[in-house]
Design goal:
By secondary structure, the protein is an alpha+beta fold. The model has no long low-confidence stretch (mean pLDDT about 85). It has one domain. Helix 2 crosses helix 4. The strands form two sheets. A four-stranded antiparallel beta sheet has the order 4-5-3-6, covered by helices on one side. It has a two-stranded antiparallel ribbon with strand order 1-2.
Length: about 130
């Protein structure tokens, strides 16, 4: 990479393959600030994450899974008409493929919370909320 481009670089997306079994494709992703090596945060980082998640899912159905602070996630989704479903007897919330803007807003709002993204042909349909 040219030196000029490196001086303009603010973030690096680190990708590590995860071994979750022969039939599972998985990666661990970390979006890091170049200078501090700290996790990236804020609006720019949220939009980068949103683009990366959508790109990784490709044409597969995908969803966000939230595992903590569910009352706040539920309230946020209800106030913005974001479709979600509660799973595992109320111990998780699944948000199927939010729009790019909704996804960036969710990531920015809940950056400090535990959530994940998954994509698969076998991802079950979510009942509209």
């Amino acid at each position: 990479m040219p030196e000029r481009a490196m001086t303009e670089l603010h973030y690096v997306l680190e990708i590590e393959p995860l071994d979750l079994g022969a039939e599972v494709k998985a990666v661990g992703l970390d979006l890091m600030e170049v200078e501090s090596r700290e996790p990236a945060h804020g609006s720019d980082a949220a939009h980068i994450w949103a683009a990366a998640i959508a790109a990784l899912a490709g044409t597969e159905p995908w969803a966000l899974d939230f595992f903590s602070h569910l009352a706040r996630v539920r309230e946020y989704c209800n106030s913005r008409a974001i479709t979600f479903e509660e799973k595992s007897s109320g111990h998780s919330i699944v948000i199927p493929a939010p729009s790019p803007e909704q996804l960036a807003e969710l990531i920015e709002r809940f950056a400090g919370e535990t959530f994940g993204a998954r994509a698969a042909r076998c991802l079950p349909a979510v009942t509209l909320q």
